[in-house]
Amino acid sequence: MKLYAPHLGHLEGLEELLAGSDDIYGVYMAGSPEYVGTGRTNLSAPGLDDIAQQTEYAHEKGVKLEIVLNSSCMGGQHLTPEGYRSIDWYFNKLNDIGIDSITVADPYLVEMLARDYDMEVVVSVLSFVDSPQKAEFYENLGADTIVIDSAVNRHFDKLEAIKESVSCDLKLLVNEGCLYQCPFRYAHFNFFSHANGPGPKPNVTDDYYYYKCLSLRIQDPELIIKSPWIRPEDLKDYKHITDIFKIGGRTHFVNWTLNVVEAYANESYDGNLMDLLDCPKDLKDLFYIPNKELGSALSQWKQCEKVCKRCGYCKRLTQKITQIYTNEGTEQILKPLSSIGEQQ
Amino acid sequence: MTLIKQLVISRGDLENKLRNLLGKPIFLIEMDGFALPCGCSGMTINTRGLQVDDLEIFEEHILKYLDDIAQSLEIDSSFIFARLIPGTSEIASLNLRILCNNCYMDFARGTGKQPRPDIYILRFNRKQ
Fold it and tell me: For residue range B107-116, what is the model confidence (pLDDT) as tens digits?
């Protein structure tokens, strides 16, 4: 199994991460937002010298280093002559440094990378490859690896069709807790891409999409169960698709990342499922979902027709196993989800 | 009891009261005391899952809960407002604010509950 772990982006973080685990095959981090942004929040903007130093360090440890430049919207700037020259210059520098791979979301950048550079080209999960047709398109464009849209993580028919249709590597993002068929997905990633891109950066006080995402789950916790995460114990069911798995979470402490790496490397976790999910990370202090009690869920989801109104399995499961953190004085205790509002 | 310990207790108490009132697991993600350079001071309670409808329907109850907090933390509760994400039903925070003279004038000029699209006033006791 090849596990890719998120990296905060500074050398100290990388040293701590790689000292803490021998199970990491590769790490990935953002590059400089001055050229191509990323579709997710970052805590760092490493310059070329930082990237060179960290690439050397990772390689000394036998670990691959991937730079993620998966902006889902660049406002067309990359198509201008100035934009092209700037990105071409940056790609050349990364190429010279010797990073192993580069993840992009825009088809234009996939083609550009595949034609002119030696770095492996990874198609981002933000390219939303959810069908064999899209996978074939990106493979023909020059992709070495495709990260499959996590929205189809529980659609084995689609996963198997993609596997059958392409010969490039496939990668699965295992711990993204986004809403299933999230209606905010495009708008939110586009917002992040501008906020974490070359600019002009929007001066936003509140991230509406994130607030709404949390609010919906607070009102309807079964949405967390329906999110297309993959439990560590269930990796074995995906190994006919791929043995490359990516852990999301570029804004978490190294300690968090190491805990998640250990869970997926051991293919087992005895604790709160929320500990493993990259997002919505705020809700790990609200809900306790015992991971081990989700043991039989995947066999249900494998045959699920995704018509929730007809089925109700996730709703029943949520009511049965979800607990909620409550404070009594200064003590934090767990109560069943069904206890909410019962004192009314 | 220390101020910090009182904050911990007050956050949990308010969260429990809101959950029982509204029947959903309202999440108070952070409770902070603040002092601004202009002279304003007070408390901000960042909320998740609380919506404008909840405020409009249960305004009286929620004001009572906030008065309880104000009392336990010895904060003047003459100005209480919610900060909204403009154009949506989402409430970002509940706030008890002791206004400086300049900020008081900004709020005193208006008469309605929403002097700005992101502010919903629950209580504003005008100076005599």
Answer: 988 888 998 8
Q: Is A304 on the interface with B (CB under 8 A)?
A: no
Q: Tens digits of per-residue pLDDT, A206-237?
A: 899 999 999 999 999 999 999 999 999 999 99
Q: Which residues pair with A104 in a beta bridge?
A: A69, A123
* Beta strands, E only, A10-83: 26-30, 64-69
Helix ranges (H only) for A37-184 are 48-60, 81-97, 107-116, 132-141, 156-165
pTM (2 decimals)? Answer: 0.92
Residue A90 CA to residue A25 CA, distance in Å, equals: 25
Chain A with chain B: Cβ pairs closer than 8 A: 72
Question: Tokens for A158?
Answer: 């689609």
Q: What are phi and psi of A28, to 5 degrees?
A: -135, 145
* pLDDT tens column, A29-39: 999 999 999 99
Q: Which residues of B touch A (CB under 8 A)?
A: 5, 8-9, 11-13, 15-16, 19-27, 29, 48-49, 51, 85, 88, 90, 92
Q: Are A126 and A53 in contact (CB under 8 A)?
A: no
- Sheet strands side by side (includes B41-48): B27-35, B41-48, B91-98, B79-84, B119-124
> Predicted ipTM?
0.81
Chain B partners within 8 Å of A283 (Cβ): 27
Q: Look at the alpha carbons of B52, B53, B56, B60 in this order and tell me if their dihedral is positive or negative.
A: negative
Domain boundary assignment for chain B: 3-124
Determine the 3-state secondary structure of B111 from DSSP: coil
Taking CA–CA distances from B27, the nearest residue in chain A reads: A286
Cis peptide before A198 (omega within 30 of 0): no
Q: Is the pLDDT of residue A343 over 70?
A: no
- Closest to A206 measured CA to CA, from A227, A223, A191: A191
Strand locations in A190-320 (E): 244-246, 287-288
- A63 contacts A55 by C-beta, under 8 angstroms: no
Q: How far apart are CA A327 and CA B122, in angstroms?
A: 26
